[in-house]
Structures are given as structure tokens and as C-alpha cells.
Amino acid sequence: MNASFFLCIFKILFSCSSRITAIMSKSLALQLMESYVQRTGAVASATTPGLPRYLWTDSFAVMNFLALQKPDSAQAIIQHVHQVLARQRSEKYPEKYLDGASDDHPTLGGLRIGKKLDERQPSDPYDRDLEWDRDGQYFHYLTKWMWALDHAARCLHQPTLNLWARELAATAHRKFTYGARQKRMYWKMSVDLSRPLVESQGHHDPLDGLITAMQLQETAREVGGQATGPELEEVVRDYLEMVQDGQFTTTDALGLGGLLVDAGRVEELIRRGRQEISAGTSQLRIATTSALLDRLLSCSLSGLKAFAHCEFDEKESANYRLAFRELGLAIGMNVVKALWEEPQFAGSDAAKKALNDIAAFDYVREKIVGFWTQDVNRKGKTYTEHRDINDVMLATAMLDGVVAASQPKREEL
């Protein structure tokens, strides 16, 4: 027996092992998502809203169910989110939509976060710790929901979902951005979007707004929805000007994962034919999707090196770790894995080099997912206190391609 024979056997065994791992991962992801649905009441057969919704978690849940080929469950969550978070947080007027919204246009008033406590009133003193538990509207949660709606629009061939996402994008841009010569953004707004609750700008909010708006524009062109609803050209230009410093680097696990996911979304935009970000902006430092992708991967690599070498402690107890933040990075690394394996990668030579360097840190993803798939680690206090968001993001991290560029075909759903 020669070396070629043994190499062939090894490849067969490796392939079988990979398939078994994928099947087991999909099985656990499905269990986690089914438990989530039962806990939160978002079942397809329900005619009224279940328990309170949380926008970030439900955004990932929609994409998870589409990846699991359960479109009815994805659409049920969309329905419940709009029934609950697009309406006033009021016992007196529980059916009243946020300003401007309606059954036909549920996102025109934005969407509440879904926090446990009411929003801070103008007369209430600011309490930084308490603010985390108060309701309102977060821009970065709204962009996640835009993305989920757009993803569903493409998977299910439903242009209305893209329209709702574009209407939400236009509302968010109008209410969260301010300033004449130099635009800035508020991080958190009141439920009715009339006043800022936290005035500081989120590190990646303009970036998320830019990429999401471009994505919505491309989908509108593809599904034939561009004739109706906001075109988002002004939205794209404003956010583009706000990201010109290119200072995206972060060592926060969740922020890093978001950067990597954004890189995947921009690479997909390039393959969808989007080269110029906005007409008449060629003089800008970041004017093309290729230049943006280069910058995203460069910043991601810098942050990932620092995180892996200085901040990531794989031996730390589950009681001192926040699963959803680590899993955000694992989800981003899944996107890197998909890009690295993509034979038609659309990035520049510099992007390819950065991608190869980032792929070398895939062991971080493996360690994170491996740690949180162990039952004993999901029984810790920090996990159970945030079970919904942790379970849903763990499911996302275990499902290849949930947030990667490839889209399931209609017949596969």
C-alpha cells in the first residue's frame, strides 16, 4: 500500500467526520431554536403575540430558521415582532402603532428594543447601569432587523419585506442622525424617536447603516421593488461621509464578529455587481466597495490579533464569560471560513492576504463554539440569565452559512 492509498482513506474519513459534525451541529441548533420558540411564544399557529419580543435575538432567529429550512417559523417571528415591537409599550393602548406605522407599513415608526423596563422619562436622572435595562430604540438593533427582513425577502421572494426594511432604514436615518456640516448619530433614542436617550455615537453604527442601506438597494433592484419606497441614496451618502476615517478596529469580541460579518456582506455586494458606493464620491478615501472591504479586513485582523493574544482566556469559568459576545465573534469567523473557501472571492489581492491571515485564527471560533456546546457550561448563571440571546446566537454559530453570502434557493425552503 502506497502513500496515495492512505491519503485517500484519510480524506474519506475526514469528509465523513465533517459531515457527522455538521449533522450534530444542525440537530443541536434546531433543538435550541425550537426551545426558544416555545419559551417566547412565537409559533406559526398563534394568532396573537406571545411573550415580549427582543429585537436583536429575533433578528438572528429569523435567519436561523431560514437556514434550517423552516420558513413558516421565520415568518411567524417577523409577524410577532411587528405585532409587539412596532407598537406602543402601553397597557392602555397596547394595539397602537408607533408614530407613522400601520398594518401595511409596520416599520415606519421604528421598532422598540424590547427591554424589560420602560424608557427613561425626561424628568428621570440618567443612570448608566439602569439604562441598559430600559426600553427605547437602538440603531444597531434596527439595522439587524433590516438585514433579517432583507434576508427573508431574498430567500422567500417577498419584495414587501425588503420594502419594510427600506422604510425602517429611512426612518432610522432621519431620526438617529443629526448635524449639518458634519453628521453624527445618537446611540439610543426614545420609543417614539422624539429625543435621544444616549447621545454618544456607536463605534460601528454609521458603518452598519452604510452596508445595510447598500444591501437593501441591491435587493430592491433584484426583486423589482425599487419603484416603490425609499431609494436610500441620501442615506448611503451620509453614512459614507461618516466612515471616511476608517477607524473600525476593535478588540471587543462582539464588535469584531460584526466587522467580519460586514466584510462578508461587502464581498457579497461586490459579487452582486456593486462597485461604486455612491455616485459622485470618487474623490473620497473610501469610495468603492473594494476599498471598504480592504479596510474592514485590515481592521479585523488588527483587532483579532490583539483579542487572541491578550484578551481571550479559554480556561476562564463560564460564570465569568458572556456567551453572546463570544458567539458574535464565532459567527463572524464562520463568515471568514466561507469566504476563505470561496473559489470566486471578489476581493483585491490585499483583501485575500488579510483573509488568509484572519483564517489562521479559526481555532478561536472552534474553542468558543466547543465551550458553549457543552451542557455544563450552559448551566452557569451568566448563560441562563441571557438564555434566549445565548441560545439563538449559539445556534447561528453552529449553522454554516446563516450570515454568509450564499442564499438558499426558494425550492430549498
The CATH architecture can be given as Alpha/alpha barrel
Q: Total strand count, please?
A: 5
Contiguous runs where pLDDT drops below 50 for at least 5 residues: 13-20, 405-413
- Kindly state the percentage of residues in helix: 55-70%
Question: What is the count of distinct domains?
Answer: 1
For the report, how would you describe the main beta sheet? 3 strands, antiparallel
The CATH first-level class comes to Mainly Alpha
CATH fold-level assignment: Glycosyltransferase
Terminal residue distance = 46 Å
- Note the run of SSEs as H and E: HHHHEHHEEEEHHHHHHHHH
Q: Compute the gyration radius: what is it?
A: 21 Å
What would you call the structural class? Answer: mainly alpha
Please report which band the strand proportion falls in: under 5%, 5-15%, 15-25%, 25-35%, 35-45% or over 45%.
under 5%
Mean of residue pLDDT values: 90
What general form does the structure show? globular
Oligomer status: single chain
Tally of individual helices: 15
Largest beta sheet: what is the strand line-up?
Answer: 1-4-5
